[in-house]
Amino acid sequence: MLELIAIVAFILALAAFLGGRGAAKRFDAEITDLKAEIARLAKRQATDLPSEAERPLEAADETEPEEAPPAGPWSQAREGARIFSDAAADEGSLGSPTSDPAAAAAAPIAAAPVESLESRIGGRWPVWVGGLALALGGYFLVQYSIEAGLLSPAVRLTLSAAFGLLLGFAGEVIRRQAVPAIADRFRNAMIPGVLTAAGAVTLFGVVYAAHGIYAYIGTATAFLLLALISLATVGLSLLHGQALAGLGLLASLLTPLFVSSGEPRPWVLFGFLSTAWLATFLASRLKQWTVVPTLANAGLGLWGLAYVTLEAPFEAPPVAFALLVMIAGIGLVWPGNLPREPFDTADAVTGPWERLFAPPKAAITVSAAIAAAVLALLFISPALEALRIPVAEFVIVTAALAAVGALRATAVYAALLAAFAAIAGTWSLTAFSGVLAYFDPLAPSPEIVIPSRVAMLTAMTLAALFPLLAAAVLAGRLRVERHFAILWACLAAGVPNALVGMSFLMTGTFAFDLPHGLAAFAGGLFLLALAEWLYRRGTEPGEGIDADAALLVLGSFGLFVIDLHAWTDGLVTTLAIALLGAGYSFATRFRNRPILPWVTAASAVVVLGRIAWEPTIVGPGSLGTTPVFNALLPGYGIPALLLVACAYFLRNARDRRVVNLLQALACLFALLTVAILVRHAMNGGVLDSSVPTLGEQSIYTLLAIGASGILMTLDGRSPSPVFRYGSMALGTLSMLSVLAAHLVGLNPFFSGELLGSLPFFDLLFIGYLLPAFGYALLAWYARGRRPLPYVMALAGSGAVLAFAWASLSVRRFWQGQSVADWKGFLPGETYTYSVVWLALGVFLLMAGSRFNAKSIRVASAVLVFIAVLKVFLIDMSNLEGFLRALSFIGLGGVLIGIGLFYQRILSSRGLDVASGAAASTAGEGAHRA
Known about the structure:
Structural class: mainly alpha
Oligomer: single chain
Helix content: over 70%
Distance between the termini: 143 Å
């Protein structure tokens, strides 16, 4: 009974509304007449009243008294016309003289007023709350009828369905009869849309109750009715706004939950979800909505995620079909076919990269791409169980995502996520976690989910896809969308290298692998050909295709390196990579491409990586013990020679950066070659991480000194920052090694290493005396070529080594081959130190005076000062008798001799200065005369 009363009341209210429609029309007619009258009065007053310039000055200065506001409606209309005409006159005086006063008077009427807080609260919230109340009212009405037992279930469901349809009908009637101003002002709170939404919710609840509570209809019927209601709601959203579309989308996503069966049918489920998704996207495309399609992508993705993770085993084809529909939608429906301006017309505020990575409606594309990429990876995850291994579905979805990313610049996120899915999927397919098990042997190694041949073919298929798509992008978007083309050139270069490289590491044969080698070789040739096509096409000035082609050339080099690893091994691979890199530099003779020399530098880095992985080049068992003439000589020497040749070949290149880099790499490889040969010869043909001996370290120091001198010479003939700073860096490093190794770490006084049987040509000779002479010669050679502090440091290092050699030679004379500190000191040994130190100080003083080297004289003074301290602090307490007296006598004589030497030097310099001044004075007098 209550249901009938509510329905009758609603019908009466609707009739009252329709009956008052005539009054509303009459009111609209009166408003139209008022507007016409105001415009007519404004036009007449503008023509009758004199202009501001024609008025007398006295009349303009007079202040008119304010009149009382008009009382009646027509008086208010005339007052409004006066106000509007004054405003129009003012505007006409400031604007063009031919402005229309009537149009200016009507303009304030058409302007929309600022919406007040009262309008926001009173015009919107009651509508939404009222719609919710209507929906809940229908629910509570049915609930009350059930509890009271007033009507049968069939009658209750029929009345509820009628109530829902009546709400929808009322919404459509009010929408057609609503005032346009109300519709424009309250778009997000329109009463027709709220009534339609309430009717849709009511109908949805009726169908669910008929199936789930009373079992009046079967599963198929209920599913069909719910689908029709949700799709109809989405269709009506074209009339009532985005909120109703969201309601229809929510109903579509909830329909499979409300209607379930004992036998799951994934094709029916994802077919319906795809249909609902497509209907939502079509409506969004027509109305330019962005929120609802993003939610639709998320909902479809969540349904796919729930199915593949909760259903065991799951069927991949239905999910893949839904993903393909979604991918096609973002590429062809919304927002894929939006017109875009060329990147060349980007304004100064928004840069091209910002426009690329923040395109219009980016959330739609991102949400769809994330859902597709995640579900494609879950297809081949070892943690999930499928009816069969869905490799084909993974490849198809990833390829479709990449194709959309190449088709539309607005789908750039799809391209990036497709590349990520391809790399991560290949990781999973090839059981790449085996590499992780190599670093952690205790970690459990997962089973390989598919045969290695299938994994290899999958990787090669996806590796071929990205260069082909990149070629299409570069052919069509090269001049229009530059940064989009650069991005695809990067994908074409990087993705094939990652895919083929991972496949070769995990499924290939390291000795000789023909399939991976052919795939890498073909891919490298294709990228080279594409780069050459870009260079030939970019003939117009300012086209700027260097970045695209450079990326492709680097990608070709990477694939060629994988090809060489697949077809060669050991020493041949190292030499082939070095030759390949040098070939890119020599190719500049035929093609002047800026990227080619940089590829040579990249090849040197790859060779360094191989050396770091296997320093013996051919393996410890195959290296041999023959000094110098073994696999190390070509393995290190030939790359060094090739780098030297490339640096010389490009010596006149415009880009000095790459020339300097090649020079530095050539120097590094040359030093590595000599150092590794020394290491091999000094350790009996074994390369290990053991601490070098003093003799071996001395050879390294001498090599560094010699290399510093060579670089200094090269810098004099061909100035280069590499030679200039490289020589100083080598000299500095060698000086640090002297302080760390020669004086402390490998010092025979601390290590106890035997010096050898020969008294002079022993370990001290090669470990201290030869490096001392080397530093002295390098300091002499560096004078005038390098900064003075660096030259003084070299001379000081030589003096320190000479001091260490003299001291250790004294200890050898008294102690024999072993000069370890645990033996203590003999009295004669203590005295001999004083004599030798003083003699060495005098020798350095004479050498510093002879070569006019202040640094050597300073070292002599320091050495003499050390000898004086030793005599007064050590000899006075440790020596006795004749040795003590002789020590002091000798010290005194030497000091007096040094003083006399300095007096003579300073006196001779003073005489030279005085004679020079006299000669200068005489010359000036003669000139004046």
